[in-house]
Amino acid sequence: MHSPATLLPLSVRDVVFTAGGRDLISGVSLTLEPGPPTIVLGPNGAGKSLLLRLMHGLLRPSAGRVAWEGPAAQNRETLRFGQAMVFQKPVLLRRSVIANVLFPLRLRGLDGGTRQERAMAALQRVGLAGMAGRPARVLSGGEQQRLALARAWALQPQIVFLDEPTASLDPGAARQVEEIIAGFVRDGVKVVMTTHDLGQAKRLAGDIIFLHGGRITERTDAADFFAAPRSEAAQAFLNGQLTW
Ligand SMILES: Nc1ncnc2c1ncn2[C@@H]1O[C@H](COP(=O)(O)OP(=O)(O)OP(=O)(O)O)[C@@H](O)[C@H]1O
Ligand SMILES: [Mg+2]
């Protein structure tokens, strides 16, 4: 069991992100609390990936503020390692499968025995223990995504940001990845993710943030959202009539 999410809440206040002379994220405010997954939905180009990167700290807002407000946020080590992100296209080292999991554990300063133990447990969890010695680059797309999740899980984060973790996976591989995500949830990890798979969003989400044109049009409890979203943009999206 991972530690409780004491980095949270995460407070996002009036955040703007500008690039190429355009506000790609405009005046976004939200608070993330511990609890079931928060899923960010919206059409292509809405700003979902940018928002996740801003929350994870990979991008700095052009205006506004992103701040961890939980008691553990004072601890630099926890701030650095308490949150992990998995990208739509996993970024893997051109080394073995297990080396990819061991590497961040070494950065974290864990001793050799603990690194090995955690890495093997993580690979077992995602069904890749039998491939530990293989070069990561020969893995299929679904296996690479599972490896990226194993790497995140081995760090025992309090929060994980997952950017379309099942895009371009076949239904079986997507289901396997979804089961790994459900495992994070059972462990008490706060999951914040984007997906274009509405069935998956229904199964996993506690609440939905709907993003359109760089703005949040609504944030709604998942059951209510899928029964009847409040914003016109989300209504059009669910009807397949919102394409950008
Ligand atoms: N560094 C950048 N410079 C200029 N424009 C950018 C930059 N990064 C993203 N954009 C633009 O910002 C908008 C939002 O991009 P983002 O990747 O967040 O969308 P998204 O909601 O994740 O879409 P998708 O569903 O296709 O993944 C897009 O129009 C994109 O082209
Ligand atoms: Mg994206």
Count structural domains.
Answer: 1
- Count of beta strands: 9
Hetero groups in this structure are: adenosine-5'-triphosphate, magnesium ion
State the secondary-structure class: alpha/beta
Strand percentage, roughly? 15-25%
CATH class placement: Alpha Beta
CATH superfamily: P-loop containing nucleotide triphosphate hydrolases
Q: What low-confidence regions span 5 or more consecutive residues with pLDDT below 50?
A: none
The strand line-up of the biggest sheet is 5-6-7-3-8-9
CATH architecture: 3-Layer(aba) Sandwich
Largest sheet: 6 strands, mixed
Average pLDDT figure: 94
Supply the number of helical segments.
9
- Which outline best applies? globular
CATH topology: Rossmann fold
Portion in helices: 25-40%
Cα radius of gyration in angstroms: 18 Å
Write the element-wise H/E pattern from the N-terminal end onward.
Answer: EEEHEHEHHHEHEHEEHH
Terminus-to-terminus distance: 40 Å
Keywords:
single chain, 244 residues, alpha/beta, Rossmann fold, six-stranded mixed sheet, three-stranded antiparallel sheet, binds adenosine-5'-triphosphate
Task: Describe the model.
It is built from 9 helices and 9 strands. By secondary structure, the protein is α/β, with parallel strands linked by helices. It has one domain (10-238): Rossmann fold, CATH 3.40.50.300. The strands form 2 sheets. Strands 5-6-7-3-8-9 form a 6-stranded mixed beta sheet, sandwiched between helices. Strand 1 (10-19) and strand 2 form a beta hairpin. The N and C termini lie far apart (40 Å). Residues 19-20, 24, 42, 44-50 line the site of adenosine-5'-triphosphate (ATP).
